[in-house]
From TrEMBL:
Name by which UniProt lists this protein: Transposase
Listed GO biological process terms: DNA transposition
Residue span, Transposase IS116/IS110/IS902 C-terminal domain: 261-345
Coiled-coil stretches: none
């Protein structure tokens, strides 16, 4: 049997085809609960059926677990592929039943390979990395709010700190949220403030803040700005502690992960970069080649050729953009501290290649090293050719 399921939050739709491609009954809706899942398994009958599901948000996860446990082959499909298939069929109607039928038809005609999910450790790393990203986004949002409040209430403050996201800045603002409060604060009391639990603000720095506050153009801002600034600083302190806890949890999980631990043997790939790779792909060795892994990330250029146009290679929009962005800073560090990668990058730059092209090529080279480590299950060792190039 071939089946397609249109996934939603509370109500899914199942469509079925027999082994000749003939529809079995009409598309059947079922609920996201125990009763609905019993109805689904009864409709599919004895395993294995090939069930095609769009990977829509997180709604497919319980379905996948139930179907896989029952012995069915489940295909998680990129929504772009499903949409292109329907467009090729010249389908003009879009309903849940039509979408489910199209997924079943795609399974019958294309026979896609069943999807194998990551192991439990990789899935835990994925959840923690995503949670950290959400917390980091919330933290950055609060910093932007604090910037607005300081720009209005004490614009000169930013000239005396490295950034409003630092513990020094939030400790001072929580103590004195506006220029008016800063101006009437005794510098000696401010100097004794410990901003990170250990270091004090210091008298010289405190006197500079108080002197700037007395001349500030934002002294007219009142209690409303004071309340907002204190609340934002409290939020930043809480988010900072949570980020530190989650980063420690990520490192702990990575130490227990066979491949993740090995990836850190590559100079330039630290615990968080390795965790992001594992969170995105699980085991890099599951790809058929290092080139396929690099293509998944999106650092393999596509060939552009049409008619009499001169063939040219150019970057494509396909690939895992989130992982590609996360690895960008990793590559910037790696081309400085990794000898063989630095030699490769410098050779491209000396040959006249643009800086960004050289960095993209270095990213692809680094992904090949990641694939090699995952495939061999051994720490990274520089080959003779790489050592000579370095």
């Amino acid at each position: 049997m071939f089946a397609g399921i249109d996934v939603a939050a509370e109500r899914h739709v199942l469509a079925r085809l027999d082994d000749t491609g003939v529809p079995i009954g009409r598309p059947t809706p079922f609920a996201e609960d125990a009763g609905g899942y019993r109805l689904l398994l009864d409709a599919l009958g004895p395993p294995p059926a090939l069930v095609v599901i769009e990977a829509t948000g997180h709604y497919w996860k319980n379905l996948y677990a139930t179907l896989a446990a029952a012995g069915h082959d489940v295909v998680l499909l990129n929504p772009i592929i499903a949409r292109r298939f329907q467009e090729a069929q010249l389908e003009r109607t879009k309903t849940d039943a039509v979408d489910a039928s199209a997924l079943a038809r795609l399974g019958f005609e294309k026979r896609p390979v069943p999807t194998r999910l990551h192991d439990a450790a990789s899935e835990a790393l994925r959840e923690l990395v995503r949670h950290r990203d959400r917390l980091r986004q919330d933290f950055d949002d609060r910093v932007r709010q604090l910037h607005r409040l300081i720009d209005l209430g004490f614009p000169e403050f930013t000239r005396h700190v490295k950034g409003l996201d630092t513990m020094l800045a939030t400790a001072l603002i929580a103590e004195c949220p506006t220029a008016e409060i800063f101006a009437r604060t005794d510098p000696r009391r401010l100097a004794r403030l410990r901003y990170d639990g250990r270091h004090k603000v210091g008298l010289d720095r405190a006197e500079r803040f108080v002197a700037a506050a007395k001349r500030s153009v934002g002294q007219h801002r009142g209690p409303v700005y004071e309340m907002q600034a204190r609340h934002v600083c409290q939020d930043l302190d809480l988010w900072r502690r949570r980020l530190k806890e989650i980063e420690a949890d990520i490192e702990g999980l990575l130490d227990a992960h066979e491949i993740g631990r090995l990836l850190t043997s590559i100079d330039g790939i630290g615990p968080h970069s390795a965790a992001r790779i594992i969170a995105a792909v699980g085991d890099p060795a599951r790809f058929r080649s290092a080139g396929a892994f690099a293509a998944y990330v999106g650092v393999v250029p596509g060939l552009r050729q049409s008619g009499k146009r001169t063939p040219a290679r150019a970057p494509t929009t396909f690939g895992n953009a989130k992982l590609r962005r996360a690895l960008w800073m990793t590559v910037l560090a790696a081309v400085r501290i990794n000898p063989w990668l630095k030699a490769f990058h410098d050779r491209l730059r000396d040959a006249g290649k643009p800086p960004k092209l050289a960095l993209i090529a270095a990213m692809r080279k680094l992904l090949h090293a990641v694939y090699s480590v995952a495939k061999s299950r051994n720490p990274f060792v520089i080959s003779t050719e790489q050592a000579q190039a370095a």
